[in-house]
């Protein structure tokens, strides 16, 4: 697993398109990233042979793999987000964070609602 320092030219990336529609997915990822930094993590993007892990969060030599997805209600989207971890063979915790209240836990991967993530000081 290759990890690269997460770089953002400007943390507050434009979240609106030219037609004034909010890009909820990008805003959601920015929120998760910001909260990880706020919680004291070093944050990286993970590259695997199959694609990308949104965030590798490291604090006190503990590692967490995180996918941030605004909406998991579509089965294809769920499969894509959860399968991002398939090529990772270590046993560090893996999370998918979304706005959904339904628990989509699968294959040892924890699904967290965004509010539970934001309110959990021990994450």
Please specify the SSE layout and strand pairing.
Layout: E1 2-5, H1 24-38, E2 42-48, E3 51-59, E4 62-68, H2 75-83, E5 94-98, E6 110-113, H3 114-119
Parallel strand pairs: 4-5, 5-6
Antiparallel strand pairs: 1-2, 2-3, 3-4
Could you walk me through the main structural features you see in this protein, from its secondary elements to its overall organization?
A hairpin with a 2-residue loop joins strand 3 (51-59) and strand 4 (62-68). With 123 residues, this protein is α/β, with parallel strands linked by helices. The chain has one domain: Trna Endonuclease, Chain: A, domain 1. The chain has a six-stranded mixed sheet with strand order 1-2-3-4-5-6. Residues 4-17 have low confidence and may be disordered. It is built from three helices and six strands, in the order βαβββαββα.
Highlighted features:
123 residues; alpha/beta; Trna Endonuclease, Chain: A, domain 1
- Seen as an oligomer or otherwise, the chain set is single chain
Helical proportion? 10-25%
What's the order of the H and E elements?
Answer: EHEEEHEEH
Percent in strands: 25-35%
N-to-C CA distance: 23 Å
Shape: globular
Average per-residue pLDDT, rounded, comes to 86
Briefly note the CATH topology name.
Answer: Trna Endonuclease, Chain: A, domain 1
The rounded Rg comes to 14 Å
Tell me the name of the CATH class. Answer: Alpha Beta
Structural class computed from helices and strand pairing = alpha/beta
Q: Under the CATH scheme, which architecture would be assigned?
A: 3-Layer(aba) Sandwich
Side by side, the strands of the main sheet go: 1-2-3-4-5-6
**Annotation field: number of helices:** 3
Number of strands: 6
């Amino acid at each position: 697993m290759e990890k690269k320092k997460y770089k953002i030219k400007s943390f507050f990336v434009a979240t609106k398109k030219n037609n004034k529609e909010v890009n909820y997915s990008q805003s959601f990822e920015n929120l998760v990233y910001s909260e990880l930094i706020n919680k004291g993590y070093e944050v990286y993007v993970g590259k695997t042979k199959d694609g990308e892990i949104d965030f590798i969060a490291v604090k006190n030599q503990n590692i967490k793999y995180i996918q941030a997805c605004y909406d998991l209600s579509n089965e294809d989207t769920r499969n894509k987000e959860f399968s991002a971890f398939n090529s990772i063979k270590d046993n560090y915790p893996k999370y998918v964070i979304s706005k959904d209240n339904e628990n989509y836990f699968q294959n040892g991967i924890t699904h967290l609602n965004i509010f539970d993530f934001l309110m959990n000081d021990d994450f």
